[in-house]
Design a protein that fits this description.
Shape of chain B: globular
Strand content of chain A: under 5%
Largest interface: A-B, 50 and 71 residues
Distance between the termini of chain B: 11 Å
Oligomer: heterodimer
Radius of gyration of chain B: 21 Å
Radius of gyration of chain A: 23 Å
Number of helices of chain A: 3
Helix content of chain B: 25-40%
CATH superfamily of one domain in chain B: Amidase signature (AS) domain
Number of strands of chain B: 11
Shape of chain A: flat
Order of helices and strands of chain B: HHEHEHEHEHEEHEHEHHHHEHHEEH
CATH class of one domain in chain B: Alpha Beta
Strand content of chain B: 5-15%
CATH topology of one domain in chain B: Amidase signature (AS) enzymes
Largest sheet of chain B: 8 strands, mixed
Helix content of chain A: 25-40%
């Protein structure tokens, strides 16, 4: 598996993690080694095998459609980096019109 | 008092030999004296602990005590504890005060247990050495130049040094069993879904499972009695009834059939580890068991499949840490994108980023089938071969880890070698089976654990075997020097 630096930059962007030039080289090395390790999976033919997502193959449980949680907005927002009037604050997303 | 198991402590509390307050104070004193040597606790909560101990003492006086009332414990810092810092070993959560209790925590609180503190761990449980923590590496009490294993290394180190009589841990690829092995104590990973994941910070949700880290199998059974059970707040919680896990501890092992996977004892296994495990099996044979060789031919694929699945699930689970609602936020973000990029770059450590990047790659367009789907297919092969062998044997036995505790920082910059230290544990998580690690001897004066793998929901049988083994041996009673 041959990756290059631009692959690492693309993946880091998808994962929304900024990485330095130096780190890009390190991740390129590490991730390439990891992909070499997992390459071993290709030694087995799995054409007729169904993927297994849950070890006990249990399907999602349904519950009655009624409200079970109480409103705890203030409680949860106490630990937020920045809030105002019940909203989470982030830098401005939409440019103001002039 | 710190030399007692929780079974013995419960009796002593009932007989008024000492109060829970005295017991908890004595453990807190030990933590004050020894934690700086081991770095096994991220935070201690002395005031809260004394308060909990006082109410436990009242329960004991009033005759409302259960088998865990007044017993101190340590929680791995991956379990949310209401109103107290819950870091998961990460700078990302250094400022995170959990707004609720994990189900495991609330169950143990209701049983009257007293929380001494939160234990150190690999960041977000990603590691096999407890060195990747933002709060520094944990040390092994058997040799403070060595790692305790990971990721629940703080819990294992604390129990081994008797800075807590018992602790909680989580196991995604061996994170309860491998540190238990390296620290010479008992660690149980229950069947997937047996213990609620609610409030347990997610790493790889289809593999994560909480369990007890204890001095004895009997203590693990007592803990599991309270920890296990259906929880509607966990969508993958098993709806299976909980049995009394202490009930069968004294059953005879007559007629027990043990499977020894040929692949586990092939070629590369360290000779000193192999002889400890063979001696352990011999001991079980003396107790009435029969051992036979079995085949698990896809074992060697478990590490590749595990690292694809675990990295993929981690990249998805850790997307929630975005600097908006809780956790670390970078200073002066230019815009929202900058806020995400830098908060995550600053908040996560190297190994966590490595796994997020690997996971993002294997899930990205064009690679999903080749990696993620392929790994899930291998996962089925691995699960099916365990199932098949479990039809002819009661349990499967092998080493927990390929070698005893390694030196601090020896493998930290070599992720592949570090991943390979999970060779005997990850397949069990892929299959969702329960397994226990029990102390079985020493190699170069370092503890070696024997892993016993059982069938789905056969925790009771595993605990019975481990308990019988501990009745016949005294490996679990050995203590590291310097922590008396």
């Amino acid at each position: 598996m041959s990756l290059d630096k631009s692959d690492i930059d693309k993946i880091a962007w998808l994962a929304r993690i900024s990485i330095s030039e130096e780190d890009t080289t390190n991740y390129l090395h590490d991730v390439s080694n990891i992909l070499d390790l997992v390459e071993k999976m290709n030694t087995v033919d799995t054409n007729n095998i169904e993927p297994l997502a849950h070890p006990l193959e249990i399907t999602a449980r349904f519950r009655e459609d009624k409200v079970t949680e109480s409103d705890q907005r203030e409680h949860f927002q106490k630990i937020a980096p920045a809030v105002d009037k019940g909203h989470y604050l982030v830098p401005k997303v939409i440019e103001s019109s002039r | 008092m710190h030399k007692k198991t929780i079974k013995e402590l419960a009796n002593a509390l009932q007989n008024k030999e000492f109060s829970s307050e005295e017991l908890v104070s004595s453990y807190l004193d030990r933590c004050d004296s020894y934690n700086s040597k081991l770095n096994c606790y991220i935070s201690l909560m002395p005031e809260k602990a004394i308060e909990q101990a006082k109410s436990a003492d009242k329960r004991i006086r009033d005759g409302n005590a259960g088998p865990l009332t007044g017993i101190p414990l340590a929680h791995k810092d991956i379990f949310c504890t209401n109103g107290t810092k819950t870091t998961c070993g990460s700078k990302m959560l250094d400022n995170f005060i959990a707004p609720y209790d994990a189900t495991v925590v609330s169950r143990l609180n209701e049983a009257g247990m007293v929380t001494l503190g939160k234990t150190n761990m690999d960041e977000f449980a990603m590691g096999s050495s407890s060195e990747t923590s933002f709060y520094g590496a944990v040390k092994n009490p058997w040799d403070v130049e060595r790692v305790p294993g990971g990721s629940s290394g703080g819990s294992a180190s604390a129990v081994a040094a008797k800075l807590a009589p018992v602790a909680t841990g989580t196991d995604t690829g061996g994170s309860i069993r491998q540190p238990a092995s390296l620290c010479g104590i008992t660690g149980l990973k229950p069947t997937y879904g047996r213990v609620s994941r609610y409030g347990m910070i997610a790493y790889a949700s289809s593999l994560d499972q909480g369990g007890p880290i204890t001095q004895t199998a009997e203590d693990a059974a007592i803990m599991l009695n309270t920890m296990a059970g259906f929880d509607e707040r966990d969508s993958t919680s098993a709806e299976e009834a909980v049995e009394d896990y202490t009930k069968n501890l004294n059953e005879s092992l007559d007629g027990l059939t043990i499977g020894l996977p040929k692949q586990y004892f092939d070629g590369q296994l360290d000779a000193s580890i192999e002889s400890v495990i063979q001696a352990g099996v011999k001991e079980l044979e003396n107790l009435g068991a029969n051992a036979k060789e079995i085949e698990l031919p896809n074992s060697e694929l478990s590490i590749p499949a595990y690292y694809v699945i675990a990295s993929a699930e981690c990249s998805s689970n850790l997307a929630r840490f975005d600097g908006v609602r809780f956790g670390h936020r970078c200073d002066d973000p230019e815009d929202l994108t900058d806020l995400y990029l830098r908060s995550r770059a600053e908040g996560f450590g190297k190994e966590v980023k490595r796994r997020i990047i690997t996971g993002t790659y294997v899930l990205s367009a064009g690679y999903y089938d080749a990696y993620y789907l392929k790994a899930q297919k291998i996962r089925r092969l691995i699960r099916d071969e365990f199932r098949e062998e479990m039809e002819t044997v009661d349990v499967i036995i092998g080493p927990t880890a390929p070698r005893p505790a390694f030196k601090l920082y020896e493998l930290l910059d070599d992720p592949i070698s570090m991943y390979l230290s999970d060779i005997f544990t990850v397949s069990v998580n892929l299959a969702g089976l329960p397994a226990i690690s029990v102390p079985a001897g020493f190699a170069n004066e370092l503890p070696v654990g024997m892993q016993i793998i059982g069938n789905y929901f056969a925790e009771s049988r595993l605990l019975n075997i481990a308990h019988q083994f501990q009745q016949a041996t005294d490996w679990h009673q050995q203590s590291p020097k310097g922590f008396e």
